[in-house]
């Protein structure tokens, strides 16, 4: 993958992750999910949050803090006749638009051509589908962190905190009345925020009575798989499993293989193609999105994801061709 393409992909990935998927108020003493009752309480909150994201109509202004930059965004979410429509538009800086219709994500960027992708699990702004606390315990600590007030509304705060430096976690500020996440922090092992996305104003309304059409399976729930490929990954970062593999024919006729790995919360992709063009060697990043690249026996191997640099570096280190 050419270096210019990698950089463009990282920028696009940052915006698309806003469809995937701060400044904390003082919180009460954290309660870790160490008892069945508390675990059940967290499960209920997460399930209500996912349900609200799929069934409510809402529009609001958000602030997005990353790389010491503050962007203002407008988010529109509508559910009608079983179809979800979402649009995210920048209100500050260069004009950028990301939209989702019929399980396709469309993006228009001032510095590049418009593009469209079809994520394996459909993709949603503020995506939370498939988060299962029981599946995360080995690599995350899950806790109720108290309450906070966001956009003039009372919220419950849940933390999904990494146990090591190979993954990121989240703090969700969940509206007590509707269960919508009004704020989301991407956090590291020390619980320091790397990115923050927060509503400053929001208006809500019920959607029509038609349930949204569910397509595909959330990536976080996908079963581990073995790829029908000559490529093997003898070692992967702890906790990450291969859940998706496909071959993509490029416009110039070359073949690219795409492998998707997840630890049931975070994910990264590996792309493999002929090393016929200059590509990425080493590690680069934009914000919390990191990419690593190297050549192996005449092939270009690139790992990309909203994970730490050590994770993408370890991901390509384990790649081998039979």
Describe the structure.
It is globular and about 55 Å long. Strand 14 (241-249) and strand 15 (255-262) form a beta hairpin. It has two domains: 3-206, Lipoprotein localisation LolA/LolB/LppX (outer membrane lipoprotein receptor (LolB), chain A), CATH 2.50.20; 219-321, Phosphorylase Kinase, domain 1. It has a twelve-stranded antiparallel beta sheet. Helices cover 15% and strands 45% of the residues. The longest helix has 20 residues, at 36-55. It has helices at 3-17, 36-55, 133-136, 309-317, and strands spanning 31-32, 56-66, 69-80, 83-90, 97-101, 104-108, 115-117, 140-150, 153-162, 169-175, 181-187, 193-206, 231-233, 241-249, 255-262, 267-274, 282-286, 289-296, 299-305, 319-321. With 322 residues, it is mainly beta. 38% of the residues are buried.
Please describe the topology of this protein:
Elements: H1 3-17, E1 31-32, H2 36-55, E2 56-66, E3 69-80, E4 83-90, E5 97-101, E6 104-108, E7 115-117, H3 133-136, E8 140-150, E9 153-162, E10 169-175, E11 181-187, E12 193-206, E13 231-233, E14 241-249, E15 255-262, E16 267-274, E17 282-286, E18 289-296, E19 299-305, H4 309-317, E20 319-321
Antiparallel strand pairs: 1-8, 2-3, 2-12, 3-4, 4-5, 5-6, 6-7, 8-9, 9-10, 10-11, 11-12, 13-20, 14-15, 15-16, 16-19, 17-18, 18-19
Quick description:
The protein has 322 residues and is mainly β.
